[in-house]
Design goal:
It is a single chain. Helix 6 packs antiparallel against helix 7. The chain has 7 helices and no strands. It is an all-alpha fold. Helices cover 76% and strands 0% of the residues.
């Protein structure tokens, strides 16, 4: 009974953490995005951020609240498979040849967005249902680091790495500038979703351990 209550408390704390990250992304979008006249790549990145860092975590929270017992046994293996799958798809879909193919084929583009959303949903669902808060925190930080690395690559690249569709004349950013803006959007979203969720989860875990009287850094042997 105590174990069940403990898991319920941990699940509730994780829901609040993931929700905080999603709310932060939404707040930033409401403030920043209306003022940004992005080009094709920038708009593409906005859609990714909206689906992967806002819709996916909120959907994971809704699923967990609807059926808390269903995901109560998610282990580390499933969490790390979801983590690696999401990052592999994110980098693969933003590789120059694959991105160029998606820009010329609506079907490929829809498949790309759908695959990234499903992978993000699997990841956030695994985070919410993880038995170990520490494993979830590590997975969040790894995901955030790799996503930010892709964003930094787009920001600091001196030449165009990803060729988007023909430039829209209504956009104020084109070519390399549009690529830099897309990278900045990604770098801004990472701390507001993955990193913020990991920080909130760490604070809640340490608070729970302190409340229960468990030494924070005690070894298994009790030394």
């Amino acid at each position: 009974m105590g174990s069940a209550r403990g898991h319920a408390a941990a699940l509730e704390g994780t829901l609040w953490s993931v929700g905080a990250g999603a709310i932060a992304v939404a707040a930033a979008a409401l403030v920043v995005l209306p003022a940004v006249q992005a080009g094709p790549l920038g708009r593409h990145m906005m859609l990714h951020i909206f689906s992967m860092s806002l819709l996916a975590p909120l959907a994971a929270i809704a699923l967990a609240r609807r059926n808390p017992a269903r995901g109560a046994g998610a282990g580390a293996k499933g969490l790390w498979i979801a983590t690696l799958l999401q990052m592999a798809l994110l980098w693969a879909w933003h590789s120059p040849p694959v991105f160029a193919a998606s820009e010329t084929s609506p079907a490929v583009q829809i498949a790309a967005h759908a695959a990234l959303f499903v992978s993000a949903l699997l990841f956030w669902t695994s985070v919410v249902a993880s038995r170990s808060s520490w494993q979830a925190m590590l997975a969040l930080l790894v995901n955030g680091k790799l996503a930010c690395l892709l964003g930094a690559l787009l920001v600091f690249a001196p030449r165009l790495l990803i060729c988007a569709a023909p430039t829209d004349t209504s956009a104020s950013t084109t070519g390399v500038d549009d690529q830099h803006l897309a990278g900045l959007l990604m770098i801004a979203a990472c701390p507001l979703s993955y990193v913020l969720t990991a920080v909130c989860l760490a604070a809640q875990t340490l608070t729970r351990l302190e409340r229960d009287g468990v030494p924070r850094f005690a070894s298994r042997s009790g030394l």
